[in-house]
Amino acid sequence: MKFIVEQTILADGVNWVSRSLSTRPIKTELLGIVIDATGDQVYLSASDLETASKAHFHADIKEGGKVLVPGRLLAEISRSLPNKPITFTLEGSRVLVTSGSAKFTLPTLSVDDYPHLPELPEATGIINSDVFAAAVAQVAIAAGRDDSLPTLTGVHIDVDKETVTLAATDRYRLAVREIHWEPTIPNNSTTALLRARTIADAAKALNGTKKISISFAPNTSNDRLAGFASDGKTMTSRMLDGTFPPFRHLLPQEVTTTALIEVERFLDSVRRVALVMDKTVPLRLNFENNSLSLEAGTGEEAQAKEDIEILLTGEPIAIAFNPTYLADGLTAVGTKFVQISFTGPNKPAILMGKDDKNGTIVENYRYLLMPMRYAS
């Protein structure tokens, strides 16, 4: 095997597939990246048996071949080499990587023992990469981190023809985002539950490409796979088992109080007042007379208080939130103003964005936040 490729092209492909490298492999071969030079294309692939990533690019192939090399080492080398053509040459059981005066020799692993990687399912729909990346980021922030509750570590995806609803929850907050896409299967309805880390990583990495093709294997399929593809890169991931909890009934319909607040000012105040407290201690909020009072700390502890102007509609309300979760929601709405809707001091509040003070509510994103109990 021998081929020549530009450094930027190689680094881009290797960085993509290295996302699926196993950190604690059940077999040594899963530490490697497969390099397959065929025709005028080089194909790269890596997997941890839960996700599998592939990339291909054009190269000047002098001699075809297939080899398995240590993945993380290849990723570090490809990033560090100068922006010059790179030559790969297989010499016996070693791979020689040359760029200018820089030379590396890599050991090889047994490519014959590398597992067969799944193929990408048939495309279900197509969406702009920036829209998908923004939506996933808004939702994945609410996913759980506790692997003992795997269902809550995922992003639930509900496809209904042209509408896709993403949702995630860790039981203390819930984020829901609706987006529209171009379905490639007419009148298709399906659901999927994917690891939040996986889908967030894929969406972020593919942001900047034009379109992303998204695939969901049918519910009747034995191999429950989801896939993403764009610009010569693909990733497949096994869906999580289990049922995502029903969530639509949690979004309140009857609202007693709404508060319209400038996000930047509110976020700054939350972060300042929270400095005196542990991040798991409630941040007390008192909404009254077009003013919001933020308080933290009691008794002999450090204390902080700050007031900001708001536009309040409805009854005054006192409530407390986890300051980190509140800050996450304010960041996720992605607008200049946030409208917080309340149904009571002991019931969840809903955060929704507004681009303009007198504009309409951005209804495609809702961030539900559970209140915390505190001693008055």
Rounded to an integer in angstroms, the radius of gyration calculated over CA atoms is 25 Å
Count of helix runs: 6
Q: Please describe the biggest sheet, giving its number of strands, its sense, and whether it closes into a barrel.
A: 9 strands, antiparallel
**Global outline:** elongated
Q: What is the CATH superfamily of the largest domain? A: DNA Polymerase III, subunit A, domain 2
The top-level CATH class of the largest domain is Alpha Beta
Instruction: Give helix % range.
Output: 10-25%
| Strands, count | 27
Bin the strand percentage.
35-45%
End-to-end distance = 73 Å
CATH topology of the largest domain: DNA Polymerase III, Chain A, domain 2
Low-confidence stretches: none
User: How would you write the strand order of the largest sheet?
Assistant: 6-2-3-4-18-17-16-10-14
Output mean pLDDT.
94
Oligomer: single chain
- The second-level CATH architecture of the largest domain is Roll
Structural class label: alpha+beta
- Total domain modules: 3
